[in-house]
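Final report, closing paragraph on structural work. Over the funding period we assembled a curated collection of sequence-structure pairs, and we close with a single example.
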Amino acid sequence: MAGPRGEVAVVGAGLIGLFSAHYLLDRGYAVTLLERGDPGGGASRVNGGWVCPARSDPLPSYPVVRDGLRSLVPGAGGGFFLAPAAIPRVAGFLSRFVRSSTPARFERSWDELDGLNARTVELVDELVTAGLIGGLADEGFLMLHPTREEAEATRAALVTVARRGFCPAPEPVLGRSALLELEAGLGPAAQWGFLHRGDRWLDPSRLVDALIRSVVQRGARIVTDAAVSAVRAGRSGVTMVTARGDVEAGHAVIAAGAWSELLLRPLGVQGHVTPGKGYSFTVSPAAPPTHVLRLGSTHVGITPLGQYARVVGMVELDGTHERFRAGRVAAMKRAAAPYLSGVDWGASTDERVAPRPLTPDGKPLIGCVPGAERIVVATGHNMLGLTLGAATGTLVTELVDRGPAAAVAAFDPMRFTRGKGQPRVSTTDEAVTA
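Its predicted structure, as stored:
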């Protein structure tokens, strides 16, 4: 049964889809979520759980490009791995990514992400009050380094970040003995470091489960094993074609994460949404950490989860969505082991990989499809889906309500589309197949 404001079909029941459903229900829409597998799939649960507006810098940058080039050399380290065999398939993405990594474009993209983040703290606090977010921790991020020089350089960079207004300045650099008073289980590589407050963290699976329960209790319908293979935009509604049959709605929201490009291209939107795989696993330290640990220049982080700790890191472009490479987990263990003692690294559990939806400029695609304004795009959040999810959900609701009048130019889904003219969009008389 349609709600008082009509029905919206949300393609994808990951974090972005669930946040969109939450705010659409608040506004009085009826919502159907169409999910290719189980709700909360993709990268929704396989992440560090960081709600980090202060750390929402865009991925395209000189250090990331450098790491990508280095990764082409066998045995090289770094947090960004580019498989040579994948280069032809992601060439369009890579060329735009490199262009977006100049200092001027990097700063502009960060400013625009800050604009989307402006309400993140307020929205997250509202979700805590509503009981949808539990266990939100704010003890701070402990930045660890093997040398004082590295620690001071990182601290100086975060002093600059603090001027953006999303976090206080980092605390002074501490030596080994003071760090051990904060975290007794630190390994020998943690010689110098400092505490940085402002960002928070949670267990992402708990959040996903809470959002699912909430939207279902409020009347949303979740259809699982319903991968959308085609979209048809009509004059008064939208049809989603799935293996389980067609779904009709007044509006559609494409929030399919790393799989979104398959639906965008036939609609005339060349978003270059590319899967950048991230890895995570769980360990049981003898002295579980109480702060998020950032491990020097390793691009590996550790999130406290009670008696456990989740280790997260890596961005891998190999042209696949979910291919698991044990060597990536082994590299993360080698990087993390010197920083955390009392861990049986061979007994790790929940070793998982999931694709983050990367875009060439590090910003999401959020807006209406030109010529088919009843279709709203909400994807490409890179590694910031949890941080930007609530703000995206509110913007999606405005776009469904008001159409292109609510659009934010910085997140225009058409910004990478050649010509940017009126796309060829199908109607109910012509299917668009992915």
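The radius of gyration is 21 Å. The longest strand covers residues 274-283. We thank the funder for supporting this effort.
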